[in-house]
Amino acid sequence: MSTLRDYFEDGPIPWTKQHILGLEYLSREEITLILDQAAEFSRLGELGITKHPLLSGVVVGNLFFEPSTRTRTSFGLAAKRLSADTVDFSPSGSSLSKGESFLDTARNIEAMGVSLMVVRHKTPGAPEFLSQRVASGVLNAGDGTHEHPTQGLLDLLTMRQECGSLEGKTVALVGDIRHSRVARSNIWGLTKLGAKVIVCGPATLIPPQIEKLGVEISYDFDAILPQVDCINLLRIQFERQRGAFFPSIHEYAHLFGMNRERLAKAREDVVILAPGPINRGVEITPEVADGAHSVILNQVSNGLAVRMACLYLLNRRQQQLLLQASTAEHV
Ligand code: CP
Fold first, then answer.
1. Which CATH number fits the domain that encloses residue 89?
2. Is 130 exposed, middle or buried (0-12, 13-18, 19+ CB in 10 A)?
3. CB 67, CB 98: distance < 8 Å
4. Domain that holds residue 199
5. pLDDT tens by residue, 180-208
6. Best substitution site from 70, 179, 301 to test ligand 1's pocket, by max atoms within 8 Å of Cβ?
């Protein structure tokens, strides 16, 4: 494993991406680098070393065009832990209501000295659109049903902590795969790290051709329980659903909810994850969510370390680009 020292020293770092837009666009090595970096921040945090001067003088813009609790607060805290200044934007009370565009909003925030932008938007591709039009490094904090890369990374880090290497492990993603950006980021990340992925849910919530991403499909949660090492319970995204995808919440919970009876059919050491927010009593019963197999709050803690790692690596890239540009000017 690489150490923080490797990255903190002045030499070149093995990181060349200006943006983190999805795990689809990162290699296995890049994903591992972020996880190792996050694990190191986490280890230092446990030793009480929580504040680092690494982003001193840097301004991070948190642009959340959609609601968030975990992602927004942990990106904000991650920036502060790295000594960055932050600018927070939310649509409520902003000049969007006067007709200002998404791009003009971002460009105006960038003009305040922002060099790293964290962007959440309901439209898939919105962070990528910005990344092609601003000089800042852009971090996708969730774009519609497309990807949520830092959630995928924190899920990977949590599973890696629980299981060791993910190579050869079996992970079930259960629930609303169709509307889930977390499912897509998990699929890209897990398959790149060598895990077998089973997506499971009602047929109406499994998108067509998902098997082309290298996953297996199951419509029978009980049948797959004995073979899985980790279960990631994805929320039913009522806010993104435009039709009736199952007859009733009660029936969904009966067939796909994680409860005490299903836990008894799973492996003794099964790891239960859920990205949050959770619908208690729908995807998961409170006793399982708060029980010994659940790592839901570890995921939240790991989110902070993962976001520190992403901000740190992207800032290093920004510095390299600035240096290259100023060298080119003087040649
Ligand atoms: N898991 C997640 O993205 O939660 P928030 O919507 O609260 O950020």
1. 3.40.50.1370
2. buried
3. no
4. 149-296
5. 999 999 999 999 999 999 999 999 999 99
6. 70
